[in-house]
Design a protein that fits this description.
Largest sheet: 6 strands, antiparallel
Bound molecules: 2-amino-2-deoxy-6-O-phosphono-alpha-D-glucopyranose
Helix content: 25-40%
Strand content: 25-35%
Radius of gyration: 22 Å
Distance between the termini: 43 Å
């Protein structure tokens, strides 16, 4: 039964997937930064169509195995950035992993809480909130687009402070004496919209890891609700799990 099932699966394997497997074998033996053969060369070498080769290459670029440099070629990618899922800020995590960070404040406005935001921030619908959108860079490369919602009444004057300092958690600690100590974090997949693609320097439709964080202070009061669109080709997140055994 099992053999029959796997034979069926093999016969259904699309042509581009054979090309992709061939490329994966090729990449495995090459160091990051190595130029891979062009679409045209691969088309001739593998005796297939350009569309088939292009699809295999695009998937490998989306998965972060290859990187395209416009006008130059396609190269074996550097290993992804591996970050633990923990109660740190973007700035802290990057620096703990040995990277430098910078932030572009894309939007910072006061708005009114809709039902979803009001429930998450423990406010009434229509209460004044901040909507903050930032582009997060690691070693000068755009890595994530992040939107944050916070209560305006709880954090008066937050926007001008964020124009001066790039770390939200830094501002919350220094200016308001508030520190997130607990959070619920969700991870789901998404595809880069044209705008996200443009900001992150990837193709529209590229894989994105969409993280949501709902964080709380020491008294259990909600602080922020954040959604972060991380480049799927550059990130691996690690959660450490342990079994709590009953004695
Ligand atoms: C991470 C979290 C966000 C948090 C941010 C603060 O990206 N996912 O929920 O708002 O860190 O980072 P920073 O203090 O660098 O602005």
């Amino acid at each position: 039964m099992v053999v029959v099932a796997s034979e069926r699966a093999a016969s259904r394997e699309p042509k581009y997937y054979l090309v992709k497997r061939h490329l994966l074998d090729l990449i495995a033996a090459l160091p990051p930064g190595t130029l891979v053969p062009t679409e045209r060369v691969l088309t001739v070498e593998l005796g297939t169509s350009r569309t088939t080769v292009r699809r295999a290459l695009s998937e490998l670029v989306g998965e972060g195995r290859l990187v395209r440099r416009h006008g130059s070629g396609t190269y074996v990618a550097e290993p992804k950035i591996t970050w633990p899922l923990q109660m740190t800020s973007f700035t802290e995590q990057a620096s703990a992993s040995g990277y430098s960070t910078s932030t572009r404040l894309l939007e910072a406005t006061r708005t009114r809480a809709d039902e979803g935001i009001a429930a998450r921030l423990g406010l009434r619908v229509g209460a004044s909130t901040y909507f903050i959108e930032r582009l997060r860079l690691v070693d000068d490369t755009p890595m994530a687009v992040e939107t944050s919602h916070l209560s305006a009444a709880r954090f008066p004057g937050l926007i001008p402070e964020l124009r001066k300092k790039s770390s939200l958690y830094g501002v919350l600690a220094e200016n308001y004496g508030v520190q997130p100590v607990e959070a619920e974090e969700t991870i789901e997949t998404a595809s880069a919209s044209p705008r996200e693609a443009d900001l992150l320097g990837v193709d529209t439709g590229s894989p994105i890891l969409l993280l949501g964080r709902h964080s709380f202070d020491v008294d259990g009061q909600p602080i922020e609700y954040v959604r972060s669109w991380y480049r799927g080709d550059r990130y691996t997140f690690v959660a450490r799990l342990s079994a709590h055994r009953q004695e």
